[in-house]
User: What shape does this take?
Amino acid sequence: MPEQQILVLDPTGSDPDAEHQALRERGPATLVDILGVRAWSVSDPVFLKQLLTCKDVSKDGRAHWPAFAETVPTWPLALWIAVENMFTAYGADHSRLRRMVAPALSARRTAALQADIETLVTGLLDDLDDRPAGESADLREHLAYPLPIAVIGQLMGVPGDQRAEFRTVVDNVFATHLTAEEQAANTAALYGLLDALIATKRTTPGEDMTSLLIATRDEEGDGSALSDAELRDTLLLMISAGYETTVNVIDQALTSLLSDPQQLAHVRDGRCTWQDIVEETLRHEPAVKHLPLRYALTDIPLPDGRTIRSGDAVLASYAAANRHPRLHQDADQFDATRISKEHLAFGHGVHFCLGAPLARLEVATALRLFFERFPHAQLATKREELQRLPSLISNGHASVPVLLRPTTTD
Assistant: This one.
């Protein structure tokens, strides 16, 4: 097969649909430039699943990526590959770290949060209810953002007056238009907040996951259960992954329903459920478009005859894979009534997202209660005019302006 020119991924994420189509047209995997780093973007869902379950592919860059040491000091996305938690762990280390976090996100504990989530959503809708007819509200700012922040804040024991600061630095972790210097400063600010949270919970523990992880760390005299770096980076992972991604799914679900009334009619007429809406949103507009990085431990042949060489970096391009014609017919169409809504929005294999049930619950609850309260809501602008987040990772909008009670409902 002739050599392909490397595709440079747009750090501002301005036209992801066109970029994902270009990736699919280049075959199951293609070389891309992601902010100066060369990697194999994998967009074929069948091949991607194989890689995500293969022991010859690792997420531990320190151990398995020859370019790690020279890349970390200058790469804007260094935090994504340098953290020490289950996100970047491999083999036994990954299993050890995942076991410590899994109980907090069990199906039983998640189901027990239903009433709290409904209370939080109702309070946010009460605040929106005060707006006069004809006035728009930014639903990303006033619904999609505050709900996940409150839920993960309660779960992790983040004080209410610190959540705005966490929001700012976590948002910047997902921003890919910032320079390496700007990201380094943001990382320092983020770790400052995490260190302060750990210090507070050590002296004043509570009934939260942060206190539990600290106790687990401190009770092991030799530190074998959880190192200081693993403790801090595990908190980073849970707060950031439990917040930003859910914001995007709520954003995209609202946007899809408000731009296609027929989909909302499917729910109201019993042709699908709110859970169907959530799954189709995850398939059609996943919260994360590309997830850095994985690394080949051996040569991996591609279906088209090329080879991912041992030591090469691999980029999981979930959004492109979700709309691949090998996975779905009419994949670019949002259809909550489609029988199969198979997707890779939460990953696949041992790194499948532990917080998936909680995210699904938050999104379904927010949608159900919102449309019960505001049945005639409309987008205040055309969907194609909504500004994308400046990110090749995070898949959302800068704002989602909505007329809650439009003066006309034509």
